[in-house]
């Protein structure tokens, strides 16, 4: 077992790990975004939760006009050209939005549907899809999961064949965040018959108003109520060959690269949510009395909150270390995977423990902890389930049966 630990230590560069240094510039960006959120977004979140949708074009245009949708994207396409650490400051600010569905939808726009486009795309696709997305004129969605193909990305069935100067696409996508409002989809699709599923796929920009694209249904969910989630079908959808992102047959690798941003963003949002949950629980428990003393005076309660805050601080250190290595251009696959796994599990633990201390009040829709409880359950499922994260980590450790054969 010691050998496995050494192998993982080498592959993750933990033996000479650094951590992110937060500068006044980082803090200024985060503070400015939080002010915008408190003024323009949070007052409307309760209604959006009831409506089970928010006006994505309106919100994204607000953010785009203020420069927040392209923080680490190229300046020539409207971005700020800053390094990815500033994107994480924005992610922490978005966590202060009172509706998790809104912050998730923004994450799709900035960190899930556009990283591969910005990194691998031609001038044509960047000009026609990245630039208007950064400006907030377009709403983007990501098309990876399908009916029967969730975390097993290599098993997707959607296909695109070449006819003349066009791709002809048939298939469908499931669990598509922003799906009912999106202007375009970053779609992972099979584009050749290579028996190796890691070499048969490509990413293609698909305008959602193209003939043959249909929103089959809007999906009702346990949480993230304000975010629209759709099942999309595509029948003989024709798009130009130039809408390809990067090289044909490299889509699987590009999407794996894109997943790293998604997993870091998820952790960046989870940590402030946990901070808030713990702090609001402290405040509530200090005022709520039972059996002649405050709930907080019970040793189990304040000890448990101390344990949870300690875990959150450890996760924050892990996040900043991962971000620093990502900015340095290092392969962060194992770190981002462990970060995603730990974040998903800890946010569930914090939400459950804190809600318990709220008692009956925690079971109502009137308080933050209730919404957090149902929203954050997604984190151990979306973007790669916990079990998939464990499988990836085991491959790096050399303990997975397939890696030992």
Describe the structure.
This protein is of the alpha+beta class and 405 residues long. It has helices at residues 2-12, 24-51, 56-65, 84-94, 100-112, 115-120, 123-135, 251-287, 299-327, 333-358, 368-375, 386-397, 401-404; strands spanning 140-143, 159-163, 166-177, 184-190, 201-207, 213-218, 229-240, 244-245, 289-290, 293-294. Helix 8 (251-287) packs parallel to helix 10 and helix 10 packs antiparallel against helix 11. The two termini are 17 Å apart. The model has no long low-confidence stretch (mean pLDDT 94).
Total number of helical segments? 13
Sequence of secondary-structure elements: HHHHHHHEEEEEEEEHEEHHHHH
Shape: globular
Main pleated sheet:
4 strands, mixed
Number of strands: 10
Average pLDDT, all residues: 94
Q: Kindly, what is the distance between the CA atoms of the first and last residues, rounded to a whole number of angstroms?
A: 17 Å
Main-sheet strand order equals 1-4-5-8
Can you give the helix content as a percent range? 40-55%
Structural class: alpha+beta
Strand content: 5-15%
Compute the gyration radius: what is it? 22 Å
Low-confidence stretches: none
């Amino acid at each position: 077992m010691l050998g496995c630990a050494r192998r993982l230590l080498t592959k993750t560069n933990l033996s000479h790990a650094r951590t992110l240094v937060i500068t006044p510039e980082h803090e200024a960006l985060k503070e400015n975004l939080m002010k915008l959120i408190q003024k323009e977004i949070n007052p409307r979140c309760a209604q959006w939760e009831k409506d089970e949708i928010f006006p994505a074009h309106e919100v994204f245009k607000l953010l785009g006009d203020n420069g927040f949708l392209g923080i680490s994207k190229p300046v020539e396409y409207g971005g700020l050209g800053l390094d990815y650490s500033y994107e994480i400051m924005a992610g922490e600010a978005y966590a202060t939005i009172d509706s998790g569905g809104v912050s998730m939808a923004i994450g799709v726009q900035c960190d899930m549907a556009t990283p591969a486009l910005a990194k691998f795309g031609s001038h044509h696709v960047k000009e026609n899809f990245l630039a208007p997305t950064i400006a907030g004129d377009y709403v983007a969605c990501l098309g990876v999961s399908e009916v029967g193909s969730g975390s097993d990305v290599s098993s997707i069935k959607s296909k695109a064949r070449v006819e003349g100067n066009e791709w002809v696409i048939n298939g469908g996508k499931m669990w598509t965040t922003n799906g009912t409002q999106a202007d375009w989809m970053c779609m992972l699709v099979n584009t050749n018959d290579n028996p190796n599923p890691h070499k048969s796929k490509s990413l293609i920009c698909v305008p959602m108003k193209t003939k043959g694209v249909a929103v089959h249904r809007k999906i009702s969910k346990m949480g993230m109520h304000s975010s629209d989630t759709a099942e999309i079908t595509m029948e003989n959808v024709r798009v130009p060959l130039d809408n390809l992102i990067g090289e044909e047959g490299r889509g699987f690798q590009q999407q794996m690269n894109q997943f790293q941003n998604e997993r870091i963003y998820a952790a960046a949002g989870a940590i402030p949510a946990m901070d808030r949950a713990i702090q609001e629980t402290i405040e509530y428990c200090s005022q709520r009395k039972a059996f002649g003393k405050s709930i907080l005076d019970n040793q189990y309660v304040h000890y448990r909150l101390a344990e949870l805050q300690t875990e959150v601080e450890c996760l924050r250190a892990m996040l900043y270390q991962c971000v620093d290595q990502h900015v340095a251009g290092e392969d962060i696959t194992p770190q981002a995977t462990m970060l995603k796994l730990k974040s998903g599990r800890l946010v569930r633990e914090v939400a459950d423990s804190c809600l318990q201390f709220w008692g009956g009040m925690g079971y109502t829709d009137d308080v933050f902890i209730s919404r957090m409880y149902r929203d954050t359950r997604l984190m151990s499922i979306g973007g790669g389930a916990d079990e998939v994260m464990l499988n990836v980590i085991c491959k790096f450790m050399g303990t997975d049966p397939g890696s030992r054969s």
